[in-house]
């Protein structure tokens, strides 16, 4: 059978199947392949039944042969070796100018490597972040493509057609060179970790600190979703808290409190350390998941370690508003840190990132979609070279309005013994960032004392380094390892 499809898909798990249906809905013939070929036949019999322009291939060679040139082939396979192995199988079958798209959660250094390797062979490569889960893939995801810029004109029409739309604009645009797309998706996922942890801390505060029921908390999150915190994660939290098990009890309270993770939050934190950026909130969110996994040890510790005996007193309604404001202020810090990381990565890897455009891509279709992101887009529209979201006038006013509640919430959490690592680190970062002088002067003196690492002086030009013989018994030899 002669097939000439516009687009090829390798990988027919949930995301792959739904993206294929989405692409086909927009008028593009698609040919599909899966390593387990029975999945291809099952897909054609079920989800793709009756669609005359979705074709099945039982080999990679058959898929390649069924595509019009230049070929556009998307991979939705497990990140890591599986991507490299699939690319190795494809390369001998492709022609110069054909394009491979990796739509999985690949680590951005792998994407940089693949883009260069394929460019050397005359092939185009895109590493594209895809967010929105099953629902987004089917009805409109957020797409973050980066890689070889020559590839963008080949896929722009298709990807912008299938992506979510916000105020008429597609939640898909070119992010940047080589690994930029997957880096931005990684940061998106890190922010997602932070958002989820902040919501969980608000939930625990209301549950354990205020003694609220699941139905009462459902109502609170439902109300929050009507205002500044309007977002997908707040919305589904309300729904989760209202969901009953078969016996009528809240299902959420029967779920084991050990959180899983796929690694993108950890990648974000490691990248922040590599680039020297204090992305503390995402780091705490990752560590909170690690702590949750220590379930058996925590159960033992709960019987042995005592906390405060204090109980909440006062107006619950007023304090719920304090929690809301603390959540909003902490969320601002989380996004500010994420954007700091992207800005530093752009310098390091020579990417030309459109920060307002990234916020627009996240406005719809993705897990962190929210009204809040529109304010970030406006901030970068006002000041394209904005150094930090905290310096934008809108966000300054929000923080000023929320600050007393933020501090009260954290103080009360400490008093009641409720763990709030993300709330706390957000405020600590804010206080550190707004400090003209930090105690690092003492730290540098310590480093010079024991290791002759030198220091700079306030009364001397930057770049001039000094060493003191603190004990009178040392030497004047200086270390060459001063790294600010």
Short description:
The protein is built from 19 helices and ten strands.
What does this structure look like?
By secondary structure, the chain is α/β, with parallel strands linked by helices. The protein is built from 19 helices and ten strands. The chain has helices spanning 14-25, 37-45, 60-65, 81-90, 108-120, 133-139, 152-162, 180-209, 214-224, 232-242, 264-275, 280-292, 295-304, 316-349, 355-361, 372-382, 393-416, 421-433, 440-451; strands at residues 7-10, 30-33, 54-56, 72-75, 99-102, 124-131, 142-147, 165-166, 169-170, 176-177. The strands form two sheets. An eight-stranded mixed sheet has the order 3-2-1-4-5-6-7-10, sandwiched between helices. The chain has a two-stranded antiparallel ribbon with strand order 8-9. α8 (180-209) packs across α11 (264-275), α14 crosses α17 and α15 (355-361) runs antiparallel to α16. The model has no long low-confidence stretch (mean pLDDT 95).
Produce the secondary structure layout.
Blueprint: E1 7-10, H1 14-25, E2 30-33, H2 37-45, E3 54-56, H3 60-65, E4 72-75, H4 81-90, E5 99-102, H5 108-120, E6 124-131, H6 133-139, E7 142-147, H7 152-162, E8 165-166, E9 169-170, E10 176-177, H8 180-209, H9 214-224, H10 232-242, H11 264-275, H12 280-292, H13 295-304, H14 316-349, H15 355-361, H16 372-382, H17 393-416, H18 421-433, H19 440-451
Parallel strand pairs: 1-2, 1-4, 2-3, 4-5, 5-6, 7-10
Antiparallel strand pairs: 6-7, 8-9
Helix pairs in contact: 1-6, 8-11, 8-12, 8-14, 9-10, 11-12, 12-18, 14-17, 14-18, 15-16
């Amino acid at each position: 059978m002669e097939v000439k499809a516009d687009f090829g898909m390798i990988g027919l798990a949930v995301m792959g199947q739904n993206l294929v249906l989405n692409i086909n809905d927009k008028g593009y013939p698609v040919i599909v392949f899966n390593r387990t070929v029975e999945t291809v036949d099952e897909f054609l019999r079920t989800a793709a039944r009756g669609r005359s322009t979705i074709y099945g291939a039982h080999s990679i060679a058959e898929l390649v042969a069924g595509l019009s040139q230049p070929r556009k082939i998307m991979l939705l396979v497990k990140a890591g070796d599986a991507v490299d192995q699939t690319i190795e199988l494809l390369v001998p079958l492709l022609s110069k100018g054909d394009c491979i798209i990796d739509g999985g959660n690949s680590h951005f250094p792998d994407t940089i490597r693949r883009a260069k390797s394929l460019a050397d062979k005359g092939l185009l490569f895109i590493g594209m972040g895809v967010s929105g889960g099953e629902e987004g893939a089917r009805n409109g995801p957020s797409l973050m493509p980066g890689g070889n810029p020559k590839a963008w004109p080949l896929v722009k029409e298709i990807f912008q057609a299938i992506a979510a739309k916000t105020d008429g604009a597609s939640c898909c645009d070119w992010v940047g060179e080589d690994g930029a797309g997957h880096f931005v998706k990684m940061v998106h996922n890190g922010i997602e970790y932070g958002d989820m942890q902040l919501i969980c801390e608000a939930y625990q505060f209301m549950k354990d600190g205020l003694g609220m029921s699941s139905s009462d908390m459902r109502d609170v999150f439902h109300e929050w979703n009507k205002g500044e915190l309007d977002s997908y994660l707040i919305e589904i939290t309300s729904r989760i808290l209202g969901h009953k098990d078969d016996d009528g009890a809240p299902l959420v309270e029967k779920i084991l409190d050990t959180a899983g993770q796929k690694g993108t939050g950890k990648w974000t934190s490691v990248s922040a350390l590599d680039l020297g950026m204090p992305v503390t909130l995402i780091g705490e969110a990752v560590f909170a998941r690690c702590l949750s996994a220590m379930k058996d040890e925590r159960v033992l510790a709960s019987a042995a370690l005592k906390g405060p005996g204090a109980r909440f007193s006062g107006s619950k309604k007023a304090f719920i508003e304090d929690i809301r404001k603390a959540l909003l202020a902490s969320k601002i810090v989380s996004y500010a840190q994420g954007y700091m990381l992207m800005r530093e990565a752009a310098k390091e890897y020579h990417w030309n990132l459109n920060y307002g455009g990234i916020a627009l891509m996240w406005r719809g279709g993705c897990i962190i979609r929210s009204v809040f992101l529109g304010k970030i887009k406006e901030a970068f529209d006002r000041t394209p070279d904005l150094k930090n979201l905290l310096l934008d006038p809108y966000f300054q006013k929000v923080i000023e309005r929320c600050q007393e509640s933020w501090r009260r919430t954290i103080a009360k959490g400490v008093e009641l013994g409720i763990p709030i690592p993300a709330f706390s680190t957000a405020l600590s970062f804010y206080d550190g960032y707004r400090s003209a002088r930090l105690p690092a002067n003492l730290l540098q003196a310590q480093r010079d004392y024991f290791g002759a690492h030198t220091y700079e002086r306030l009364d001397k030009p930057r770049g001039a380094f000094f060493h003191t013989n603190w004990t009178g018994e040392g030497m004047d030899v200086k270390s060459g390892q001063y790294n600010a």
